[in-house]
Write a structure and sequence with these properties.
The protein has an eight-stranded parallel β-barrel, surrounded by nine helices. The protein starts with a strand and ends in a 6-residue tail after the last helix. It has eleven helices and nine strands. It has 285 residues and is an alpha/beta fold. The chain has a single domain, classed as Aldolase class I (TIM Barrel). The mean pLDDT is 94. Helices cover 48% and strands 15% of the residues. The chain binds zinc ion. The site of zinc ion has 5 residues, from loops.
Length: 285
């Protein structure tokens, strides 16, 4: 069934597990992710992100995922991740996404507050939920090339500011910067777990989101979730799992699309189930 954050994240937070967001850009990925959720009786968040639109147009993703979500036997949130512009967020809303992330984390704080307050009012009127990011989760590539990004702790989320931000904007979930980064890690990340606890205590009603989850150790996830993370974003891991299955098949001279499609579904499903078990969402649908 198609739901929004309110139907899955508060329960996850209360019962100390996390629900995964797995982006799905074609029907094979979507079958893998939703198939994993149904096999494990787990709630799931599925969707796409603004930077992924060049690979798969928003309306195609929306049409495919919307039907699959509605038909699913487990709760599925259709989430538009890292919306960068107001217009694209509105487009996602009109296409039927039940949840939006509006990422204004590189704007000045006051601007982030203003933009999220406006977006949240509109999204809530449509029955959709909203995620914001406070502080800034960088990406592994720019950390190497952009000198201003080399000390990520300069952009970590401040618990006191988080409280003020949530009170003003009424967002439904907050992505926090505590030492993760997007993309593939070159070195094992070091998470600021104390900060997760401090933010959890400052905003006990707001589910916290961990971005940049691909590549973290199992122990990192367990600790972060125990300290209050209720949603984890995973993309690189399932993206690579699907591609690896195709590469191996091609090496075995399997070269038709029909040789590869179900292998992609199975590889994405397997990688997704692994994460769901780790996050503790199995059996929580
Ligand atoms: Zn992210």
């Amino acid at each position: 069934m198609l739901v929004n954050f309110q139907q899955v994240l508060p329960k996850a937070q209360k019962e100390h597990y996390a629900v995964g967001l797995f982006n799905a850009l074609n029907t094979e990925m979507a079958r893998g992710v939703i198939g994993a959720a149904e096999a494990l009786r787990s709630p799931v968040i599925v969707g796409t992100a603004e930077i992924l639109l060049p690979f798969s147009p928003l309306e195609c993703v929306a049409d495919a995922l919307l039907f699959m979500a509605k038909r699913s036997s487990v709760p599925v949130v259709l989430h538009y991740d890292h919306g960068l512009t107001f217009d694209k967020c509105m487009e996602a809303l009109k296409l039927g996404f039940t949840s939006l992330m509006y990422d204004c984390s590189t704007d000045p704080y006051e601007e982030n507050v203003r933009k999220l307050t406006e977006l949240t009012r509109i999204a809530h009127a449509f029955g959709a939920t909203v995620e914001a990011e406070l502080g800034h989760v960088g990406d592994n590539d720019s950390m190497e090339t952009d000198p201003s990004m080399q000390d990520p702790s300069a952009f970590y989320t401040d618990p006191v500011q988080a409280k003020e931000f949530v009170d003003k904007t009424h967002v439904d979930a907050l992505a926090i910067a505590v030492g993760t980064a997007h993309g593939a890690y070159r070195f094992p990340p070091k998470l600021d777990f104390e900060r997760i606890t401090a933010i959890r205590e400052a905003i006990p009603e707001t589910p916290l989101v961990l971005h940049g989850g691909s590549g973290l150790s199992d122990e990192d996830f367990r600790t972060a979730i125990a300290r209050g993370i209720a949603k984890v974003n995973i993309f690189t891991d399932i993206n690579v799992a699907g591609a690896r299955a195709i590469r191996e098949a091609v090496q075995r001279e399997k070269c038709a699309m029909t040789d590869l499609m179900n292998l992609q579904v199975e590889a994405v499903k397997e990688a997704t189930m692994q994460k769901m078990r780790l996050f503790g969402s199995e059996g929580k649908a």
